[in-house]
Write a structure and sequence with these properties.
alpha+beta; Histone H3 K4-specific methyltransferase SET7/9 N-terminal domain; Fusion Protein Consisting Of Minor Coat Protein, Glycine Rich Linker, Tola, And A His Tag, Chain: A, Domain 2; 2 domains; nine-stranded antiparallel beta sheet; six-stranded antiparallel beta sheet; 4 helices; globular
Length: 251
Amino acid sequence: MKRKLLTALILCPLVLIAQQTVKVKKTMQNSRITENYEVLKSDRKIRQGHYQQILDDYILEDGFYKNGLKDSLWQSYNLSRVLISTGMYKEDQQVGNWNFYNNKGLLEQTYDFTKQKLVYYLHEVPGKEQKFSVLIDNEYKEVILDRTPMYIGGTETVGKELTFNVKIPHEAFESRQSGKVVIRLSINEKGEITNYEINKSYGYGLDEEVLRVVKTLKHWLPGIYQGKVIATKINIPYKLKMTTGTHSRYF
């Protein structure tokens, strides 16, 4: 019995030592964004503990890692310091109900990642509904939908993806012109993207770059019309403002 107790006492400190962490501060490549996180002292490739992604003094992401995988509560913010998403990770997978907010901080969408089900969405204001192009009897028509097609994660998540992932071509900067690119997506009844079109062109290589990032946005819910899911076309705009030399946020 004493031998077993002694063995347990020896093993316990070893486990504690193995879980000791070291703080890391890393600047992302070709970016002003820094990552602050912890890694295991015993294996510095494995993240363990608190994580933050920061642009200047703006927190963009805040969460935790466990054995190198996202775990526990994660939150995301936009550049106006508005909370745009909050929810739980388990072993690098989003689980349970996640809340997604618009740029005014209003709850826009709640999605249950465990059940793969939309729980809540913010309805359009009556009288201000947007018309969408939908496929009816093999012909596209402009109608007001019961539920608009939506990206799982909300509009601010799409905006964040565009803001931080579109790389402005040198030719676009050299042109010194403000402008807009509009990408049109065709979304079928299953929420799958069946076609991409450049609906409005800026040129100078920016159209192709915006299209590249838009193609990474895979998780859509289809529109609903008269109680049934329906194939729909939607536009995603991207603005470039040369007054500041930087690109604007989505929408």
